[in-house]
Amino acid sequence: MLKANNPNKKSSQNISLSEITNPNAIAQIQHFRKKEISTSELVNGILNQNRTALSRAITLIESTHPTHIEKANSIIKSCLPHVNQSVRIGITGIPGVGKSTFIEALGIHLTSLGKKVAVLAVDPSSALSSGSILGDKTRMEELAQDANAFIRPSPSGSNLGGVARKTRETIILCEATGFDTIIIETVGVGQSEIAVHRMVDFFLLLQITGAGDDLQGIKRGIMEMADAVIINKADGENSQNAQVLQAAIQKTISLFPKKDSEWVPFVSCCSALHKEGITEIWQTLTSYFETIKKNHFFEENRKNQNLDWMYETINDELLHQFYNQPAIITQLEINKKAVQNNEKSPFEAALELIRIYKK
Amino acid sequence: MLKANNPNKKSSQNISLSEITNPNAIAQIQHFRKKEISTSELVNGILNQNRTALSRAITLIESTHPTHIEKANSIIKSCLPHVNQSVRIGITGIPGVGKSTFIEALGIHLTSLGKKVAVLAVDPSSALSSGSILGDKTRMEELAQDANAFIRPSPSGSNLGGVARKTRETIILCEATGFDTIIIETVGVGQSEIAVHRMVDFFLLLQITGAGDDLQGIKRGIMEMADAVIINKADGENSQNAQVLQAAIQKTISLFPKKDSEWVPFVSCCSALHKEGITEIWQTLTSYFETIKKNHFFEENRKNQNLDWMYETINDELLHQFYNQPAIITQLEINKKAVQNNEKSPFEAALELIRIYKK
């Protein structure tokens, strides 16, 4: 169904018209909505580009239930040999910069070129701020109804490592489902940028004028990671300010050390709302990918990212297994009470549990 | 030496004049600067309020060397029974908001009241941005030379859990050394706020006018954690704008759910540069601490934070022990190569290492 001819066809529940009118497709959707479904059925669904199967498999990845985790691991293993040569693009920017509008404009441009676009998010703060990015699909209403696009909010979790791992695994499933352009959104505020930068081929920073401390502090770290800095909302009265900011950022970037990719980050203006500048941005991205595939940075970078992925999986698994061991579950409850009653220091209580686990 | 009468005495290397002119003090400093020193000597030094011993012990906490970690653990254990009833204050705000100036003004006010102030920092991004907060003591030149103040930059590390754990352990050592007011600085951008909020009794958010998205997005989550929002740089022409922002924040905060502490967060303006408003802020903090000690929130909150600390120590230890096991060290190297050569998927390589570790 990802091969629908008209990517702009609209229908309810993100299903293309062909799916609704085609009895086979309806049967398939109903099939994948059943309560119990085997992992091999889900894998087959994914490899047949069925997005309901994809959604259900992602739900397994995001679950903390031991049976679900086992199923998820088996699905990922089966999908790994079938991943395609997608491109992975990270997009960041502080709240208010227009990330959703930009991603929607870019996504629609990409599907109009025949691309299949998956939009994921990494937002470990969503547990706290109770407002996950991409949580509300209406923020990208047009793209959400595009038959060649798939949008999935950030997995929840206060632990960045866990959120990042789940997102990496979701990328694999999206690629096995035939999505060739993976966009990963994150909020422009720190650690999650670093995590997203580690899982993409291209990292794009969105900016706006008048955001205060554009060029200093933590932002500098994020700007150093960026392959492109795009000033959004460069329309109407704001156009001139945007150009001033563009020049300032250009100057800052020229002072940064050369990138391993040999790519010189580009700075440009756009108006995602008016869909201005989007085509040019995609053209530049295309030439970026040509460059880094030619000089083998693409390949090298993916190899390094795979190492990161290995470490993330190890760390996440170690903690998971510890906290699910029966002896630990029992003693943890005892030590928690002892710590709360000031009978044991948290430090000693922790080291004692580790000693028990090692036995 | 923390009991020097004049806290504004200045001298080189953060040592009070009495230390320089007193032969015993000089001998003691020289003693703690020796290359090899036993843990019991360091513990004695700490309990005798010697800050050179404190510095060296913190260096052990921050080390990744197995012998140092063992020493550090033993020092913490010995110091735990001697921690005093300090207050722990977290301070955050985006870069440019004037955190250093504010902390210096507050710190000097506190030492003038006879308090002993330790300033620590949590900044896991410092590894990436290569500019740790508090890294440069000259940013708080006056406070750094105050005999009753101790300033320590953020421990380095890209892993927030590890940085947070080291900071908690450092708090214990500072308290055992007699510091009664612990200030923990962090950058106002996300996960590290949550970590710091979990280790302090009072959480203060610094703001400035014109910072753009003051009231939206991720900032909302941080604002919800705040016990006070202080608008800094409220001087000269900016005074009126600061008052407008104060009213807007006040309104936002009034819509938040009631805090467990029953404390209604206060919003006020100050000019840290001109030392205006600092006395009033400290008065409000004093009444905060009276309130939460009376209604037992202080105690309850500390208990919950101790649980966090226990979990942090467990998680950090688990990873540390895994990566230091000889069988893992060997196989990790093999699997890293296999992943880089695309002979093994990162996912399978990770699960294989976990299997080996479990044996």
From TrEMBL, chains A, B:
Q: Which CDD domains match?
A: MMAA-like
Question: Any stretches that span the bilayer, and where are they?
Answer: none
- GO MF annotations in UniProt: GTP binding; GTPase activity
- PANTHER family of this UniProt entry? METHYLMALONIC ACIDURIA TYPE A PROTEIN, MITOCHONDRIAL, METHYLMALONYL-COA MUTASE
Question: What is one cellular component GO term in this UniProt entry?
Answer: cytoplasm
Q: What is this protein called?
A: Methylmalonyl Co-A mutase-associated GTPase MeaB
Give the family from UniProt: Belongs to the SIMIBI class G3E GTPase family. ArgK/MeaB subfamily.
**InterPro entries referenced in this protein's UniProt entry, alphabetically:** GTPase_ArgK, P-loop_NTPase
- What is any Pfam family matched here? MeaB
EC number(s) on file:
3.6.5.-
- The enzyme's first-digit EC class, named in words, is hydrolase
Q: Which domain of life is it from?
A: Bacteria
| Keyword annotations of the record | Hydrolase
Q: Which SUPFAM superfamilies match?
A: P-loop containing nucleoside triphosphate hydrolases (SSF52540)
